Amino acid sequence: MRLNDFDMDEPLTLDVVAETVGARRSLVVRLVQQGLIETVEGQSGEPLLPRRVVVQLRRMQRLHRDLGVNFAAAAIILELVGRIDELNRELAGIHKESTGS
Questions:
Q1: Per residue, what are the HEC states of 46-100?
Q2: What is the C-alpha to C-alpha distance for residues 83 and 89, in angstroms, rounded to an integer?
Q3: pLDDT at residue 58 above 90?
Q4: Is residue 3's pLDDT more than 60?
Q5: Which of 47, 18, 34, 26 is nearest to 73 (CA)?
Q6: Closest C-alpha to 29, from 55, 43, 48
């Protein structure tokens, strides 16, 4: 299965996310409390995490492991990379429009 085969908005419990990324539940809870990962409210009021957070957490773990940055810095790095990607897509669209392609 590929990542595109999943509903990235599907809500997952903190435990499922922690198990999926191989992290302790306490780490996931701390990142939620610090506002570093997105949550949605479940029917019973407990915080749930959209499936896309699994991808984000894996990237944060790699930055933490490979570069030694803390999780707050990893979240900022990922946000900036996302913004750069978005700007590059916009720039490519503008370039395509200006060349008539």
A1: CEEEECHHHHHHHHHHHHHHHHCCCHHHHHHHHHHHHHHHHHHHHHHHHHHHHHC
A2: 10
A3: yes
A4: no
A5: 34
A6: 48
At 94, the amino acid letter reads: I
Q: What is the rounded CA–CA span in Å between residue 96 and residue 63? A: 34
Is the full-model pTM beyond 0.90? no
Level-2 CATH architecture, domain 3-99: Orthogonal Bundle (1.10)
In this predicted structure, the answer to whether residue 2 has a pLDDT above a threshold of 70 is no
Long-range contacts at 29-32 (CB < 8 A, ≥ 24 apart): 31/57, 31/60, 31/71, 31/75
Residue type, 66: D
